[in-house]
Amino acid sequence: MGLYQTYDAELEADITMAEDFVVRIRSDLHPKMRKLLQHQQKKHRAHLNSNAPVPPAVQDQIDIEKAECAIVGWSGKGAVDREGKPMPYSPEAARQAVTDLPHFRRDVIVAIYSLATFQKAELAELGKSSSGSSEPTSSAPSATS
Question: Which pTM does this prediction carry?
Answer without folding.
Answer: 0.72
